[in-house]
Design brief:
The protein has a single domain, classed as Rossmann fold, CATH 3.40.50.300. The protein is α/β, with parallel strands linked by helices. Helix 7 (190-203) links the parallel strand 7 (178-182) and strand 8 (208-212). The strands form 2 sheets. A 6-stranded mixed sheet has the order 6-7-8-3-9-10, with helices on both faces. It has a 4-stranded antiparallel sheet with strand order 2-1-4-5, covered by helices on one side. The protein has helices at residues 53-59, 90-96, 111-122, 127-140, 144-147, 160-173, 190-203, 216-222, 245-251, 255-261, and strands spanning 13-24, 27-38, 42-46, 70-78, 81-82, 97-100, 178-182, 208-212, 225-231, 237-244. Helix 3 (111-122) packs across helix 4. The protein binds adenosine-5'-triphosphate (ATP). Adenosine-5'-triphosphate binds at residues 24, 27, 29, 47, 49-55, 67, 237.
């Protein structure tokens, strides 16, 4: 399916990444990445294995710091605020910039409690308020109709595709401004993949989305903007080209991007 896209005329950067270097210990994984992620748009990050796509998006809400000793240089501004400033509240940052991973990771609890989890951690809503939040997050993640009669059942009994939409509902429940998705459909069957793509399309506009994907057709279908990453001779990831998705896939400026999107490399 191809979705109609309308590239916005006034673009507001939700995230501004400036000359970002990222190191695991002493090993540099990405080198001087500079790009904007525009509000309300879907931005795809594509590129060959090991070029730093996951590293890059995990640096955008500082979830990468959970992976051990990492070092970050450069800046990431979230609506003008430096997310690497010492005073940043990490819980709040990760609520505002939510994340969905490749492998669905529901908590071992009921469907309802999964979605309510983050909301309960941050506030004390009444039962009725919480019911409303859970319902609207599940509707937002296009899962409500499938689970509304089984909210008390374990999330682990859902199919892989349903679990992934539940994880999206869990992220939506705390009202993020940005949703980062790291290959959200790569472990799913084609029908579940299509549902995730439709969902991305329906969330676009009110939500800013950055998605890492290996699937170039998927990037072409769902995104408004695309960043192509690759590695240099020393195998450090860099961003080669960033542009409107249509341009990247039909008339890229850099020959490395052209080769990759035309399947000649990677
Ligand atoms: N936790 C980690 N510790 C050390 N090195 C890591 C870690 N995670 C990733 N790397 C290294 O950083 C580089 C970039 O990895 P990353 O996973 O970001 O690439 P990717 O483009 O997302 O790859 P893939 O498409 O295979 O998922 C690789 O060389 C990888 O081995």
């Amino acid at each position: 399916m191809n979705y109609t896209k309308s590239v916005a005329t006034t673009l507001i950067p939700a995230l501004r990444v400036k000359s970002l270097n990222f190191f695991y210990g002493t090993r540099q994984a990405i080198d001087r990445v500079t790009m904007d992620i525009y509000q309300g748009q879907v931005t795809a990050i594509i590129g060959p294995s090991g070029c730093g796509k996951s590293t890059f998006i995990k640096a955008l809400n500082r979830i990468s710091e959970l992976e051990g000793k990492v070092k970050v240089e450069g800046q990431v501004e979230f609506f003008g605020q430096d997310i690497y400033d010492r005073r940043v509240n990490l819980n709040r940052l990760r609520r505002e910039i939510g994340m969905v991973f490749q492998k669905p990771n529901p908590f071992p609890m009921s469907i309802y409690d999964n979605v309510a989890y983050g909301v309960r951690a941050q506030s004390r809503p009444s039962r009725m308020q919480l019911d409303d939040i859970v319902e609207s997050a599940l509707k937002g993640a296009a899962l409500w109709d499938e689970v509304k009669d089984n909210l008390k059942k374990s999330a682990l009994g859902l199919s892989g595709g349903q679990q992934q939409r539940l994880c999206i509902a869990r992220a939506l429940a705390v009202k993020p401004k940005i949703l980062l998705m790291d290959e959200p459909a790569s472990a799913l069957d084609p029908i579940s993949t299509m549902k995730i793509e439709e969902l991305i399309h329906s969330l676009r506009g009110e939500l800013t989305i950055a998605i890492v994907t290996h699937n170039m057709q998927q990037a072409a279908r769902v995104s408004d903007y695309t960043a192509f990453f690759s590695t240099d001779e020393s195998r450090i990831g860099q961003m080669v080209e960033f542009d409107e998705t249509e341009k990247i896939f039909s008339d890229a400026n850099d020959p490395r991007t052209k080769d990759y999107v035309e399947g000649r490399f990677g």
